[in-house]
Amino acid sequence: MKTMRLRSLLIIILFAISLFAVSRSFTTQIVQATNCPATDYDCQITEIQREIDALAPAHEKNKEELAGLKKQLDDLNKRLASISSQLKKLQGEIAGREEDLAFAQAIFEEKTNNHYKFLRLYDPLLPFLSSDAATAFREINFRQKAADEDRKTMVKYAEDLIKLKNDKATLEKSQTSLAAAQKKVNEQYKFLEGEVAKVETYISSLSAKQSELKALKEGGFQTSVGDVPPSLEPCSGPPGSSNFCSPGFSPAFGAFSFGAPHRKGMSQYGAFGRARAGQNYEAILRAYYGDVRVVDVNTSLTIRTSAGAMDFEARYIPGIAEMPASWGDQGGMEALKAQAIAARSYALSYVGWRMGNQNAGGSICVTEACQVWKSSKADSGGKWKEAVDATRGKILVSNSANEVVNSWYASTAGGYTLSYSSLGHSTPGQWDADGGKDGWPGNAWDKKGGSPWFYKGWYKSRGGASCGRSNPWLTSEEMADILNARYVLDGKGGDKSRISPVDTGCWGGNPYSLSDLRGIGGFTSVSSVSVTYGNDGSTLNVTFQTNKGSESVSGSAFKEAFNLRAPGYIGLKSSLFNIEKL
C-alpha cells in the first residue's frame, strides 16, 4: 500500500511538473505558497506552478517587488530540491527491498530445486512395501502441504518482484522528468534574476547622475587653503556668527559641516592655529602624521611635472601654492615650514622616490589633483621661500616603515583628522583640538586658526551659483522632504532614481515633487532635531521629531539623502556635521 501510495504521488508530481514552462515575463501579482503541508508534494507543486505563472514583466509598479521575486524563486528551487531528495530516499528504500527480495528469491529457488529432486527420486510404491505405511503417508501429506505453501510463497515473491521492477522503472522515469523540470525552473530563475539585474542596472545607471550630484555637493572647492585664504561667505554661518543671515521664516533648519572634505593628514588651518600657539614644525608634523621623524636627505634632483621638468629645490618646492605666505607674518611661520616639508615629502612619494632608491621615474601634476604649483609663487620669494629654504632637504620618514611619508593635507579637518595608510605608514585618527574631544569644538585647532570652513552651511557652488538660494536654511516641509527621500533610498517604496533636487532648472532630471514624495514617505513636518557624535569623528545619528513621531537616521544615511535632495547647491561637505534649528 505504501509503495502504491508513493507511486501514485510520483505520477501526480510528474503530471504537475509537466505543466512547467519557461516563461519570459513577470506578472504584477505575487502568490504566496503558505497553505501546503510539508509532505503534500502535490499541493506544493501546484502552488509552485501558480507562482511561476504569476511572475510578470518588470515595470514601475513592481520594481519594489523584485527583491521579493528573487526570494520566491530561491524558495521554488529549494522546494523542488526537497522533492528530489524525497525521491532519492524512495529509491534507497526500493533498492533495499530489491536486495531482500533477491535473497528471498534465492531461497525460493533452492527450495524449488530440492522439491524437484525429491519428486524425481521418490518411489510411490515404496511406502506400500514398508512396514510403517502410516508414517509414509504422513510424510507424503507433509511434503504435499509444504509444496503448496512454497508455491504460494513463490507466487507472492514473483508478484512482488514484478511490482518492484515496475516501481523502479517508474522511479527512474520520474527522476528523468523531475531533472528536466528542475532544469526549466532554473532557466526561469536565471531569466528572472537577469530581469532583476536589468532593473538594478537601470537604477544604477541613473544613479551615475546622482553620484555626480553628490560629488558636486560634497566637493565644490579646493581642498587646500591655496595661495590666498578664502574669506567668510555671506549668510553661511550659524546664529550668532558675523556671517549669519536670517532666512525670514521659522522654524528653519540648517545643516552645518565641520571641515571638508577628506580631513586626512595635516589640517592647514590647524597647523596655523598650532603655530600661533607656539608649536614648532616638528611638533605640528608629528601631531598630524603620528610616529614620524624629520630627516635630511639629498634632494638635488630634477622632478618631472605636467608643467615640464624643473629643479626640485630651486624651482618646484618654491612654487607650491598650497598655503598663503602671509601667514608667516601672522605668527604662522612654523606652519609654513611644516607645509614645505609635507609638500616635499608628498611630491617625492608621488614620483616614486624611496629611501635607498632615489631614482624617481614618475611625474606629478601641478593642479589640485596632486599639488598646486604656480610659476608666480616660485618667483615671489617672501615668507614661503624663506620657509622652503629653512627646511631644504628635510622630509618626513615613518619610524615604523622607515620610508618617506605620503603626507596628505587639506584646508580644514573640522576638529577631527581621519586616519589613512600609505607606503606602510598609518596616520592617527584623532580629535584635533586642544584638550582632545573634551576641547571640541570650541578649542579645535583649525578654529583657532580662523578657518572659514570650520563650521559652515554650504549653499553655493565653487563658481558661486546658488540656484536662487540666498542661505542654507530649509523650511520644516523641506526638511521633512529629506526624510521622505531617505524613506525611498532605504528601499521602502518609490523610485530611487527620482531622488534629486526639485529645482530642475539647475539639475534637470525628473525628480519627485514635494507632494509626490510626501505621499510615499508620509513625513509632512519636522518640529525639532538633535545630533549625536561618534568617537570616530563622524555624526553618528540625527533624530527628528516629526508628524510621525521620533525618527532617527544614521549620520551617513542622512548625509546621502540630504546631498541628493536638498534644494540647489545646499550640501554637507563632511561626515562630521550638525543640524541647527531657528
> What does the average pLDDT come to?
81
Instruction: Work out the helix count.
Output: 16
Q: What Rg is obtained from the alpha carbons, in whole angstroms?
A: 41 Å
The description of the largest β-sheet is: 4 strands, antiparallel
- Write down the overall geometry: elongated
Number of DSSP strands? 18
Question: What is the end-to-end distance?
Answer: 81 Å
Helicity, in percent?
A: 40-55%
Counting structural domains, the number is 3
Characterise the protein shown here:
The protein has three domains: 2-216, no CATH class; 227-260 and 454-581, no CATH class; 266-448, no CATH class. 47% of the residues lie in helices and 12% in strands. A hairpin with a 2-residue loop joins strand 4 and strand 5. The two termini are 81 Å apart. Strands 1, 13, 14 and 18 form a four-stranded antiparallel β-sheet that branches. It has a three-stranded mixed β-sheet with strand order 5-4-6. It has a three-stranded antiparallel β-sheet with strand order 15-16-17. By secondary structure, it is of the alpha+beta class. The chain contains 16 helices and 18 strands. Helix 13 crosses helix 15 and helix 13 (476-489) packs across helix 16.
